[in-house]
């Protein structure tokens, strides 16, 4: 099976601080790869390098076997790389529908047409409506985004990410700050993502991480400490000691 995403020997320094060191990692096409680790392990730095916000000190990134290490972020996005962030990046004073319409337009040739409103394109409106229907926010379509609950804003952000038709989607702590009920809703939504979308997920909640993962990678101090299935990670004493915590006094 082809790798959707591979990082090879990835390293990065912030001044004298080593954030990542020789990281090798891959995600197969359609896989759910969850990346866990304590604060400062390098998880978000890894995502920033993969998406092109940071240039690595060493190593390379391959997207469907194409070297994208030096490509600008928008060019990686055009190749099918999408991302969400720890902090929501919505337009709070626009309606839910307008947020989705902008995301849908961004993935369509109509993005180059600035003299017509997006509502003048029926196929874009229909796609936005389908997305809101499918993911359960149609009844919120006319609501201003800042009036949504925080959990609903997180769900909307995932809808916007899917609107761009990504082939590889990076989710940076999508359940951060959510209540248990909201966390369950977002996790259910991620579980329903189509399998033609490869998902890499940074998650602080280990129960959520293991429930969503096909495979888990544990980062520690900028290096890959361990990787494997859910069961393998639960049984790995290094993971228990460093990240999960142990029952030892």
Verbal overview:
The chain is α/β, with parallel strands linked by helices. The chain has a domain at 3-80 and 173-244: P-loop containing nucleotide triphosphate hydrolases (Rossmann fold). Helix content is 34%, strand content 25%. The protein is built from nine helices and ten strands. It has helices at 43-50, 73-78, 96-106, 122-134, 150-163, 180-191, 206-212, 230-235, 237-244, and strands at residues 3-14, 17-28, 32-36, 58-63, 66-67, 81-84, 168-172, 198-202, 215-220, 223-228. The chain has a six-stranded mixed sheet, with helices on both faces. A four-stranded antiparallel sheet has the order 2-1-4-5, with helices on one face. The radius of gyration is 19 Å and the shape is globular. It starts with a strand and ends in a 5-residue tail after the last helix.
Write a brief structural summary.
This protein has 249 residues and is an alpha/beta fold.
Using DSSP, what is the number of strands? 10
| CATH-level-4 superfamily name of one domain | P-loop containing nucleotide triphosphate hydrolases
- Order of helical and strand elements: EEEHEEHEHHHEHEHEEHH
- Kindly name the structural category: alpha/beta
Large-scale geometry: globular
Report helical residue fraction.
25-40%
Tell me what the CATH architecture of one domain is. 3-Layer(aba) Sandwich
Count of DSSP H/I helices: 9
Output the keywords:
249 residues; single chain; 4-stranded antiparallel β-sheet; 10 strands; 6-stranded mixed β-sheet; Rossmann fold; alpha/beta
